[in-house]
Write a structure and sequence with these properties.
alpha/beta, seven-stranded mixed sheet, 7 strands, 2 domains, 14 helices, Rossmann fold, DNA polymerase, domain 1, 296 residues, globular
Length: 296
């Protein structure tokens, strides 16, 4: 599988943000910098967040010129800490740093998904870790050991949409020794899955569910959206790209709440989705949903 990350709905996201030259924008999920690159090319100055230190180190190396020119500031922090981190940055720089737009791409970067060493990939046989931020305490293998079978079933169903969650959870708990590697888990799931869609690895949904649980991804989104709204200037725009129904549901309900309270207006009445051409070029984009909102 191609290990090069392709930013999803890239042009649509940048167009909806209505970039004003030399205004500050936040890329809340830097990843491999695809959206940040386009923001800067459009004339924006960017504060980019990522809780994965590998992504931050990649950004420091790849965007040296932009950082030196004052066009980009990288922050190693989760996007749920946006407000606190921006307050600290404003104090350090002694600048107002008015934020005209904020972009969230809730997807996982391809290098992360393909990393067997960090436990994200079912290819290879790495440590079953899955922490985006290695400062977090609980790993995926910890969850398999500590969480009871019934709760594992719910986790696999709710976060991964896994139809055979019950059988998989039962098999995991029946093992004589704890499952500690990606290869062990992927092999076990492959041996008991009865229904497999062509082109999709049998372990895909369980790995997704564990990643979401380890990183508390849905809670992070629930905390990040109000923080983003509070630091956004009047008429500023928030754009979100979700890849999971749970993610999109949180965004949809929060946006609707702001609209109902006359605090914001939706720019996208229905979520935008990738074109058939984009899905053909990047199969990982197939589940993406983009929403945009303006603060009033």
């Amino acid at each position: 599988m191609n290990n090069t990350h392709i930013s999803v709905l890239l042009h649509e996201a940048i167009e909806l943000l209505k970039i004003k030259p030399n205004h500050w924008y936040i890329d809340a999920t830097f990843g491999r910098g695809g959206h940040t690159r386009k923001l800067i090319e459009a004339g924006a100055k960017v504060v980019a967040f990522d809780w994965d230190n590998e992504a931050i180190e990649y950004g420091k190396e790849t965007f040296q010129k932009e950082i030196a020119a004052g066009q980009l500031i990288l922050i190693h922090e989760s996007f749920s800490k946006l407000e606190r981190a921006l307050t600290k940055l404003r104090q350090e720089l002694n600048q107002a740093l008015a934020i005209s737009g904020i972009l969230f791409d809730f997807g996982t970067s391809t290098p992360q998904l393909m990393s067997a060493e960090r436990g994200f990939s079912f290819e290879g046989d790495g440590d079953l870790d899955m922490r985006m931020d290695t400062r977090l305490g609980v790993t995926a293998k910890d969850i398999l050991i500590l969480v009871p079978e019934k709760q594992l079933v719910e986790l696999f169903r709710d976060y991964g949409g896994e139809e055979e969650a019950k059988g998989i959870a039962k098999a995991i708990k029946a093992q004589s020794q704890p499952i500690t590697t990606t290869g062990q888990l992927a092999s076990l799931i492959s041996s008991i899955k009865r229904r497999v869609r062509p082109g999709i690895h049998p372990a895909t949904k369980v790995f997704q569910a564990l990643r979401i649980a380890v990183n508390s991804e849905l809670d992070e989104i629930g905390q990040a959206l109000p923080a983003a709204f509070s630091i956004l200037e009047k008429n500023g725009i928030i754009v979100t790209i979700a890849f999971h129904d749970g993610e999109d549901r949180i965004v949809k309900h929060q946006f609707k709440s702001w609209e109902n309270n006359k605090l914001a207006e939706s720019i996208t009445k229905k979520p935008l989705q990738p074109t058939e051409t984009e899905i053909t070029e990047n199969k990982r984009s197939r589940s993406a949903k983009l929403r945009a909102l303006r603060k009033i």
